[in-house]
Amino acid sequence: MTKKTTSDYYDSHWAAFADINYPAVKIEKVKNFFKPANNRLLKAKSLLDVGSGDGTHWYYLKKILELPINYHGIDISKKSVEFLSKNSRETGSTFQTMDACQMDFPSNSFDVVFAYGVIGYTDNPQNALQEMFRVCKPNGIVGVFSPEITGLVRFGLQFLRSIACRLNSKGKSQLANLLVPFFGLIPSETRISLNNASRKQIREVILTDIAPPHLSLLLHDTIANWYSSNLIEIFSDDKEMPTSIWGVKIDTISKLG
């Protein structure tokens, strides 16, 4: 699978679904993700959003909280970057088309680096996370949310993906339409259903699960071990929302001194 295949897929996805009218339940999930890092966010000067997508996190931090932070976002999709660049002009935020597994930023560039529901969709999740660690400043923080999917839900998702991979774009869309009425009955970290979101918004979530070229279902312990092995000291590990982890990049120079 080439990088172009991945970028083409997400260009098509965000051309169809990018919308600044975010469901309240989605904003609430974002709020809960950032809660352990709130005090550090208030002191930070620069932030990198890895896989900015439809901009939910930008909207929460810059439009709702109005944080005076230099907000940078990257996404492999040009359509995502165009959409967010257009809608964020008055906030002084910047967005660039970039591969999370091979960032163009110098090491130690940002006070805060995070990826919400993104690294499992990259070509190489471990590389993506290591790049996040690299561009984070010493004593800066790195946050990741990558839902741990196990048991019957994992089996069901893998089964649906095996069907979707055999369908063309129209077929994938039709499959998503069939699943919309049942989505609220299936355990999901999004908690989106027809009671709190539109059919289009639910279709976007379903297609994000079943249709992308890459999806690695990462386990919590795997991600936690990647943190530890890269000298990132975990300060928040939400057991009720696995896997939601925040850690501090250890300043090895200061430690040695």
Account of the 3D structure:
- Strand 6 and strand 7 form a beta hairpin.
- The chain has 11 helices and 7 strands.
- The chain is an alpha/beta fold and 257 residues long.
- Helix 8 (169-179) packs across helix 9 (199-210).
- It folds into 2 domains: 3-148 and 218-256, Rossmann fold, CATH 3.40.50.150; 151-210, no CATH class.
- A 7-stranded mixed sheet has the order 3-2-1-4-5-7-6, with helices on both faces.
- The chain has helices at residues 3-17, 24-34, 38-43, 56-64, 78-87, 125-135, 151-164, 169-179, 199-210, 220-229, 252-256; strands at 46-50, 70-75, 94-97, 110-116, 136-145, 232-238, 244-249.
Which key features would you list for this structure?
Rossmann fold, 11 helices, alpha/beta, 257 residues, 7-stranded mixed β-sheet
Q: How would you summarize this macromolecular structure in one to three sentences?
A:
The protein is an alpha/beta fold. It is 44% helix and 18% strand.
Number of domains: 2
Helix content: 40-55%
CATH class division of the largest domain:
Alpha Beta
Instruction: Label the structural class.
Output: alpha/beta
Largest sheet: 7 strands, mixed
What order do the SSEs take from the amino end to the carboxyl end, as H and E?
HHHEHEHEEHEHHHHEEH
Rg = 18 Å
Major sheet strand order: 3-2-1-4-5-7-6
Shape estimate: globular
**What CATH architecture of the largest domain do you see?**
3-Layer(aba) Sandwich
CATH superfamily of the largest domain: Vaccinia Virus protein VP39
| Termini gap | 46 Å
For this entry, what is the oligomeric state of its chains?
single chain
- Please count the beta strands (DSSP E, at least 2 residues each): 7
Helix count from the secondary structure assignment: 11
